[in-house]
Design brief:
two-stranded antiparallel ribbon; mainly alpha; about 160 residues; about 5% strand; 4 helices
């Protein structure tokens, strides 16, 4: 990659966000040029905030950007009015993900209990145990994804 020109957010994601935004109950339609402008604006904004967050991490002797660095970068860049809502949204997202994992684990345990209580065959119980092992792997992957969401390696996208 040579620079910010090589980076962009998927247009479909940006379009979905804009279409999901309502002004006085009216959905906004977009021209192709407007979608391109949104994509480039988002890319520049993320690059700017990531550069500020990377500088904060480096200042604190770290190579990894944390969520706190991002919030401080927003605040330092005069976007402090967004920090509180960003924190609330991140917490709500993490809670929803935690609840989903908990419900999946509970459901799997109930299936195991039902299978073992009905004199189920060894094969069906073994398959549930394998599913439980897969669930553990899925939980580990979800945790890795959360950590990657919270931290961004500074070695890429530093445009200082």
């Amino acid at each position: 990659m040579n620079g910010i020109e090589d980076l962009s957010i998927p247009k479909s994601i940006v379009a979905r966000i804009v279409k999901g935004t309502q002004v006085n109950g009216i959905h906004a339609n977009m021209q192709r040029e407007a979608k391109d402008a949104f994509v480039k604006s988002c890319t520049v904004f993320i690059s700017y905030i990531s550069t500020q967050a990377a500088a904060l991490a480096r200042k604190n002797g770290r190579k990894t950007i944390t969520a706190a660095d991002v919030y401080e970068a927003l605040s330092n860049s005069q976007f402090d009015t967004f920090v509180h809502s960003c924190k609330e949204d991140a917490e709500a997202f993490n809670n929803r993900e935690r609840e989903k994992r908990s419900a999946q684990t509970k459901n799997l345990r109930e299936k195991k209990k039902a299978a073992s209580g009905k004199g189920a065959s060894r094969n069906s119980i073994a398959s549930l145990n394998e599913a439980d092992d897969d669930d553990g792997e899925a939980e580990a992957e979800a945790k890795r994804a959360r950590v990657e969401n919270e931290t961004v390696e500074e070695e890429t996208n530093v445009y200082a």
